[in-house]
Amino acid sequence: MLIVQKYGGTSVGDCSRIENVAKKIVSVKEQGNSLVVVVSAMSGETDKLLGFATYLNTLPNEREVDKVLSTGEIVTSSLLAIALDKLGYKAVGLSGRAAGIITDTAHTKARIDKVNTEIINNYLKEDYIVVVAGFQGQSIDGHTTTLGRGGSDLSAVALAGALKADLCEIYTDVDGVFTTDPRIDDKARKIDKISYDEMLELASLGAKVLLNRSVELAKKLNVKIITRNSFNDNMGTLITNEEEIMEKPIITGIALDKNQARISIVNVDDKPGIAAELFTSLANANINVDMIVQTIGRDGKTDIDFTIPKTDIALSKRILDDFKHSTQSVEFDEDIAKVSIVGLGMKSHSGVASKTFGTMAKEGINIMMISTSEIKISMIIDLKYAELAVRALHSAYDLDK
Ligand code: ADP
Ligand code: MG
Hints:
The chain is of the alpha/beta class and 401 residues long. Helix content is 33%, strand content 26%. The protein has helices at 15-30, 45-56, 62-86, 118-125, 151-162, 196-204, 212-221, 274-284, 313-321, 352-362, 386-396; strands at 2-7, 34-39, 91-94, 101-103, 112-115, 129-133, 136-139, 144-146, 167-172, 193-195, 225-229, 237-240, 253-257, 260-269, 292-294, 301-309, 329-333, 336-342, 367-373, 376-382. A hairpin with a 7-residue loop joins β11 (225-229) and β12. The longest helix has 25 residues, at 62-86. It binds adenosine-5'-diphosphate and magnesium ion.
């Protein structure tokens, strides 16, 4: 079998952990498999490197930032190759560009366009264990690019797809995908199998165990993912097609996102074109608007509420300054959280909304905004009730049993 494995930052956090990872790899190699291993930077490294760049310039050139950040993963890939060599195995460390990963030119958030597989395939033919630096590639104009936070997950899935690997194993610091973040609720249970669609929702709604873009790509390329713990040998979570999942609970998991902020535009003119103008100017600045609620107009005025990533607050303040003339006030609220329940079973069961809102009511938690899709319900609530809401919903839907 050809197996692509990915090890996250904690799993390669120091030399003894890198030795532990090397032993894991060797045991898989010994069973007659070929291996391509993607590694993250040692935990804390990326932030440290970014700190250097922003110390020198608060708005550093992104092309150069990418070169600086990419070194974190390159260091780990070669350290792991050194550890494998010591155990008596042929291993080579490759940067993203040396591994043939080609991206677009969007520095700090590049997309993978294609993978030139000859380089890796040649090493595999010569029985090398290939260790690839995650999170990075090379743009068509020759510069190093990075894929954004969590990007090593994407590197692993893209390589697994391009190399037609039999399996993509994502090793992290928990046993797999849980019914909710085990750090928030210690009653969270590990899920054995989950569909791409549910995992994509959970990842997009705050479960950082997998990068949402990697799940999307895995579904498209039909890559089977298993998330596992690098610190034990437990069976992980299989992420696969819906058809392969027999047991379909109504609710599969609960996600929490604390990185959103709410903007309220109060008493804006209630006439055609206002919302279009507002959201076009935000879109032009690449601000990703998530939930939107507009109240029914009264006396020619209305309120528009929406959420954006917290990191875009300063930028949206600037944009909304131009908008003030036609509105009474613009309010910003950073103390919010988005709690979401996700499950395929919602498609065919009624009463999920009433049970969810009832659970919030019982805890005395006010819901500020709601949005739904076929397989999820998201609610914006006060930040201070975030964990309480997660635990209450987790137990209301018997996810702890
Ligand atoms: P890595 O560095 O290995 O990529 P991450 O920190 O990105 O690891 O992701 C693993 C973390 O994701 C876990 O430590 C856990 O706290 C968090 N997490 C959030 N939601 C979930 C979930 N539903 N299941 C498992 N882990 C989750
Ligand atoms: Mg991660």
